[in-house]
Automatic annotation (TrEMBL), chain B:
It comes from Diceros bicornis minor (South-central black rhinoceros). It comes from the Eukaryota. Gene3D superfamilies: Immunoglobulins. The lineage of its organism: Eukaryota, Metazoa, Chordata, Craniata, Vertebrata. This is Ig-like domain-containing protein. InterPro entries: Ig-like_dom, Ig-like_dom_sf, Ig-like_fold, Ig_I-set, Ig_sub, Ig_sub2.
Length: 95, 232
């Protein structure tokens, strides 16, 4: 399965102040999850109906120098996190 | 109806406490929950929940992907099967802050929420959709909140070159003069206080003049700030 990685570069030069700045980072990773990982199968034996669905989905993870992280499934919206993520331990996972 | 019997599978094999030590499985009010108290890379796989009753069966499969060999506190997959096994035909997703809710068909549904978990030293984000689970480490490339600044000083004075660097994991920060790394010594003292890094030149001489740079590197990126020091 193909994984795409996008990186970012910033290059600045302040000639007047004789200062320079340069940065490079892995910004975005898009990975394809196999179809079997995203499937649904149902059978209604009384009505003789079955349903099966499977499809690839793309997981997206993005990080940035400004301490913001975004992730989610492509096409279904992203969740944004301000880092470092603050939550008191022990963590309630489903609340 | 009647309430279905539910069973969990991993890669097609029935899950029990002998095949998956520490696993907690519960099913009440139509809510089936599988908890792995501390996941490792070996727990990655296809997890399925099968709900069966007299009129049929329904299976929902999700992938658990653990991307590093780390003990994590909890991973929970939960799927509501109260009204499963009826009519299907469309997938609809709704979004609300911090959660993803998917309505599959008319009567069965699955819900997942985004969030974060981890140990004291590592934090992990998870994002659960009804059929896809993704876990990634909390990372941020190095950033210079405060960059190096060029300066002109008199011979014999004390000079402090200072930067403020953020990043997760904590970046490795190194000082250079004209491209050569500076080793901390009594005359060129490098110190760190939180995210503040400084190079203290006890007594500056004209030969200390030059281009100073600071490089910050971690697993997701690197950054360099450069400035000039002129000692008159």
């Amino acid at each position: 399965m193909a994984t795409s990685e996008l990186s970012c570069q910033v290059s600045e030069e302040n000639c007047e102040r004789r200062e320079a700045f340069w940065a490079e980072w892995k910004d975005l990773t898009l990975s394809t999850r196999p179809e079997e990982g995203c499937s649904l199968h149902e059978e209604d034996t009384q009505r003789h109906e079955t349903y099966h669905r499977q499809g690839q989905c793309q997981a997206l993870v993005q990080c940035s120098p400004w301490l913001v992280m975004r992730m989610g499934i492509l096409g279904r919206g992203l969740q944004e996190y301000q880092l470092p993520y603050q939550r008191v331990l022990p963590l309630p996972i489903f609340t | 109806m009647p309430v279905p019997e539910v069973s969990w599978f991993r890669d097609g094999q029935v899950i029990s406490t002998s095949t998956l030590p520490g696993v907690q499985i519960s099913f009440s009010d139509g809510r089936a929950r599988l908890t792995i108290p501390a996941v490792t890379k070996a727990n990655s796989g296809q997890y399925s929940l099968r709900a069966t009753n007299g009129s049929g069966q329904a299976t929902s499969t999700a992938e658990l992907l653990v991307t590093a060999e780390l003990a994590l506190n909890h991973v929970i997959i939960w799927i509501n099967v109260l009204n499963a096994s009826k009519y299907l035909g469309y997938l609809n997703t709704h979004q609300s802050p911090g959660s993803i809710l998917a309505v599959i068909g008319q009567m069965s549904w699955a819900q997942g929420r985004s969030g974060m978990f981890g140990s004291e030293s590592h934090r992990w984000f998870w994002n659960l959709s009804p059929d896809c689970l993704k876990i990634a480490p909390e990372t941020a490339p190095p950033n210079f909140v405060q960059r190096l600044q060029s300066m002109t000083v008199r011979q014999g004075s004390q000079v402090r070159l200072q930067v403020k660097v953020t990043g997760i994991p904590t970046p490795v920060v190194k000082f250079y003069r004209d491209g050569a790394e500076i080793q901390s010594s009594l005359d060129f003292q490098i110190s760190q206080e939180g995210d503040l890094y400084s190079l203290l030149i006890a007594e500056a001489y004209p030969e200390d003049s030059g281009t100073y740079s600071v490089n910050a590197t971690n697993s997701v990126g690197r950054a360099t700030s450069t400035a000039e020091l002129l000692v008159q």
